[in-house]
Design goal:
The chain is an alpha+beta fold. Helices cover 42% and strands 18% of the residues.
């Protein structure tokens, strides 16, 4: 009986690990900017090259300024439609910025921030709450450390995720977060039933 339990446990671990591995590989392929997307980004935002830190601030500014904060019903998610309409939410800007950073060879990892609409502390179990609020940001690795990229306001200086949570006007201090998970109000990159778990 004991060995049967161990066997089932090991098979479950291997199956889940393989499933996560395949999801990460699939999502890395989906998040990588296509030639068509790069053409659109260069046409719309002009210079998307990042040579130093000032370029990071410049690109943050043009994306936040050009993509106004307004709901853009693009399903499946499409940066072409977001750029064409010039409107979107935090997750739309985040997707555009992530693709620009990937194009420049800068490592990124998404961060799903979630919080209670009533201001209560949250745990991982709150992810099942249908009234849960969320915000979409990501971290990028530059100059030997992970920094946070804002998606609703211009990035004026490098900040860490913890600094962002401590001083943000967008999310409360007691927000929870999950690294490597990208969630856009329940919408994921095609196919939308596969959670966006990845890094680049």
């Amino acid at each position: 009986m004991y060995f049967k339990f161990v066997k089932i446990f090991l098979v479950t671990i291997v199956t889940v690990s393989l499933f996560l591995f395949l999801i990460i590989i699939w999502n890395r392929n989906q998040i990588k900017p296509t030639n068509y997307e790069l053409m659109l980004l260069k046409k719309h935002f002009k210079n998307i090259d990042i040579r130093d830190e000032s370029d990071i601030f410049r690109i943050s500014k043009i994306v936040v300024n050009d993509i106004v904060h307004k709901k853009n019903l693009t399903v499946p998610l499409s940066i072409a439609r977001v750029v064409d309409k010039g409107e979107g939410f935090c997750y739309d800007r985040s997707l555009i910025l992530q693709k620009i950073f990937i194009y420049n060879g800068i490592p990124i990892r998404p961060v799903y921030i979630y919080y209670s609409p009533t201001g209560e502390d949250v745990t991982i179990f709150n992810l099942l709450d249908k009234n849960l609020m969320s915000h979409n940001v990501f971290e990028y690795y530059y100059n030997g450390k992970w920094n946070l990229m804002k998606t609703n306001s211009k990035l004026m200086k490098t900040i860490s995720l913890q600094e962002y949570l401590d001083h943000s006007k967008i999310v409360p201090k007691n927000s929870g977060y999950i690294r490597y998970l990208n969630n856009r109000n329940g919408q994921f990159i095609y196919p939308s039933f596969i959670p966006d778990i990845y890094y680049y």
